[in-house]
Design goal:
166 residues, Beta-Lactamase, 6-stranded antiparallel sheet, globular, Phosphatase_reg/MetRdx, GAF, GAF domain-containing protein, FRMsr_CS, L-methionine-(R)-S-oxide reductase activity
């Protein structure tokens, strides 16, 4: 199967999350290593979405604690407790967090002062949170409900990868 990638990212309203999911399936097919797959997925999403400055994963490595995983973007916070920030809220509630303006989010952690909006998808395997899929943008209101739904769908696919290899 040949995979084609858009040469130019498209606007949010036009973005094809079905194609992104197909691309994600294609680049992970047959690869059992979770970290390799998460690395390529963060690169794929960072490349395809416009107006994002950070795309990556935080993984549960200790109880109630997220630890930085594969990502694209500037240097990031390394450890985030479930009790702090947008990532912590997604891990704690098991619900996708769509934040129009992170500066209005109680307990927001400013890993990059240039980030102004965020969407975080919790990743669940066998009923427990194993990590979060995190995207930041320098623009307030960058992410829509449509983006959150498309990224949540991608998150459901990510949950099917080989988490036993972690």
């Amino acid at each position: 199967m040949q995979t084609t990638f858009a040469s130019e990212p498209t606007s949010t309203d036009e973005f094809d999350y079905t194609m992104l999911l197909e691309q994600a399936r294609a680049i992970t097919a047959g690869e059992p290593d979770l970290i390799a797959n998460l690395s390529n997925l963060s690169a794929l999403v960072y490349d395809q979405l416009t107006d994002v400055n950070w795309v990556g994963f935080y993984l549960v490595r200790e109880p109630e604690l997220l630890v930085l995983g594969p990502f694209q973007g500037k240097v990031a916070c390394i450890r985030i407790p479930f009790t702090q920030g947008v990532c912590g809220a997604a891990a704690r509630t098991h619900e996708t967090q769509l934040v129009r303006d992170v500066h209005e989010f109680p307990g927001h952690i400013a890993c990059d002062a240039a980030s102004n909006s965020e969407v975080v998808v919790p990743l669940m395997v066998k009923g427990r949170v194993v990590g979060v899929f995190d995207l930041d943008s320098p623009s307030v209101g960058r992410f829509s409900e449509r983006d959150a739904a498309g990224l949540t769908q991608l998150g459901r696919f990510i949950e099917t990868l080989n988490w036993a290899s972690l």
